[in-house]
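Duplicate of #3305? Posting structure anyway:
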């Protein structure tokens, strides 16, 4: 418990020694520098400067005499004031960050996610927030396993199309229906994949390509050091790619009736 209290105080702006000395004084009620030193473990050579710093901050009152006594101010008052200050700082920081976001204009339409947690969170969010359709093209069916719960839940409310682009992997282990693209669609997707791969030569092959409502898309690729997800937040580009795909195979997703 004491360790948690000390950690909380340091998060609120106390130094390690200040936190130890203040905690000791709260327990003592009132005490000399020597007593605070013995209970808190703050070195004898530092205890006076630490208590002086606490007094200057208003966390400790001093009763001069021989010896001098120190008393901790009410923790509710001290911590309550620090909490208010911290909340004010957080509010100001948020306001400043929002202003920066406005001043920078529109966000970049492409960005990469390298952490497994970040990738999983983004994919799940796209599937769960889709309103009409989800279309997923996979090269490696095992890359979809972490998201099967979300995919199966989505099938209950919207159109979900899972499409295999790998002749050697038709997703036989997936608990959902897997679509095989026709020749025209296959040719188009191969050309699209080649264009993307020529731009990112260090990546091996896509795990899957996800479209959500024709507005947002994501490409998961298996790189040497792990997975990399490229998020495309350009509705016009995603819609154009999705429109070509559905033109070749109207059975996918909602077909032409996406909006």
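Output from current build:
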């Amino acid at each position: 418990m004491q360790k948690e209290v000390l950690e909380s105080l340091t998060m609120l702006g106390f130094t390690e020694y200040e936190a130890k000395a203040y905690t000791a004084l709260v327990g003592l009620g009132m005490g000399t520098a020597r007593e605070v030193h013995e209970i808190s473990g703050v070195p004898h050579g530092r205890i006076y400067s630490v208590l002086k710093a606490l007094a200057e901050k208003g966390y400790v009152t001093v009763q001069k005499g021989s010896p001098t006594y120190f008393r901790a101010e009410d923790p509710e008052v001290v911590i309550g004031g620090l909490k208010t200050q911290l909340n004010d700082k957080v509010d100001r920081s948020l306001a400043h960050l929002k202003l920066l976001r406005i001043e920078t204009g529109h966000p970049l339409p492409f960005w990469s996610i390298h952490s497994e947690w970040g990738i999983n969170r983004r994919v799940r969010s796209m599937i769960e927030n889709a309103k009409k359709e989800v279309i997923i093209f996979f090269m490696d069916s095992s890359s979809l396993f972490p998201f099967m719960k979300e995919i199966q839940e989505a099938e209950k409310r919207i159109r979900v199309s899972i499409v295999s682009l790998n002749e050697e992997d038709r997703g036989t282990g997936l608990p959902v229906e897997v679509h095989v693209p026709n020749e025209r669609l296959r040719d188009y997707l191969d050309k699209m994949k080649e264009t993307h791969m020529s731009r990112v030569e260090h990546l091996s092959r896509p795990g899957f390509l996800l479209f959500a409502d024709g507005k947002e898309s994501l490409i998961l690729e298996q790189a040497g050091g792990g997975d990399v997800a490229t998020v495309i937040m350009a509705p016009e580009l995603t819609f154009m790619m999705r429109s070509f795909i559905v033109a070749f195979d109207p059975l996918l997703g909602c077909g032409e009736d996406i909006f």
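Confirmed duplicate; merging threads. The chain has two domains: 2-77, 110-248. Residues 13 and 26 are 17 Å apart (CA to CA).
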